[in-house]
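hey so i finally got around to running the thing on that chain from the lab meeting. sorry it took forever, my laptop kept dying and i had to restart like 3 times. anyway pasting the input first so we r on the same page abt which one it is
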Amino acid sequence: MNHLLLLKPHPFRLLLYVEWVLLGMTILNELPWEGLNYMEALLGESSHTTTLPSYIWLPTTLLCFFTLGVMGLRLPTGTTAGKWIYTFLGLALILIADWLGGWGRFGIPYLIILIRGCIIFKSTGRLILGGVVLLLCMMSMAISFQDLHQLQIEMTKPRTITLVQLKTWLIVLTINSAFSFGLTIIFVLMLVNALLSERQSRQKLTQAHDKLREYALKIENQATLQERNRIAREIHDSLGHALTAQSIQLENALLFCQSNSAKTQVFLSQAKHLAAMALQEIRQSVATLRSNPLEGRSLKDAINSLIQDVQSRTNITPNFDVSLTHPFSTEINTTIYRIIQEALTNICKHSDATKVTLQLRTVSERLYLFIEDNGKGFDPEQNTTGFGLQSMRERTEALRGKFYINSAIALGCRITVDIPIPKLPSTF
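ok and heres what got predicted. didnt touch it at all, straight out
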């Protein structure tokens, strides 16, 4: 039953206040002004057609309207059946009040039901509710028209009206008009205030959008600078080392080129190997700088390319297991690709591993990535400033995910990434 109704606070306070103002106008018109002295003589017989005494129908009618107003504090957001139950309950309160007070006197409360229906229903439900409200209003008007003939007969009877009776009628009419005009003023003030608030909100939203765009540019520039610094460090550490070693091998080859051709051949062979390593480092750095590393490929195909590259450069054959229920956004795919790329690079350079296990799967609206190797491991407490680990952690946290790393000396390393899969935005 709780899931059927699932009531939540009214999302638009202004509309709730408007509903209360409309109910106030209805209650004001419902008060028994005709019961005042001299009013019956002026109006003939009372236009009130109910046979119930006023001390019964008036409190009951006011209670129905009060309940209808309190219902507006909470609106249903559960199933469609629960929404219709809530709506028909409101219509039942109006019909009870209408029947007790005389059919055809109430029209404003139906507007309140229609306002709430526009909030809780979609377009089809709104059209259906509009038809129901129109039908009920026409039925009330049809029943009221049946009493017009009797009312005309009563109004044609000769009556003697004194000056005191006329003054009394004018006073009552003035009070009623004053209350109605006061409620109209309140409604206009609320409407104007809503328009001004909306305008101010749009201005603030525009300013916030401009600031957000400015912050995004700053973050993008900062991220670009960090990425350039990382690539510069990688080039300095790997490419610089390879070229330095190659220079030494070439100097040795020049030194023995005339006296020992065998040693010269060995030095040249080593220099060629170092040149190939340097070229591979350059290609890897360029691949890292690409804005879209997937290049139209699926995430699985892009990871397979990374694995083939690892196999071509090392003796490691990664064990890759993928279990994905559906494709993801470009942002998530790029993040996962970069994390796997960085992890495999670190394993090839530093771990001395012979076995790597990589698992990628979705479980209960979450994406999990596991990367484990049997290398020499390290102490995470003493290696917290590395560009690779920091980059993987920042990429994960940017998607509101969690990054875990477990490693110890001579026990390998295990990386776990837990990223929530975004859901479609829900409507009220």
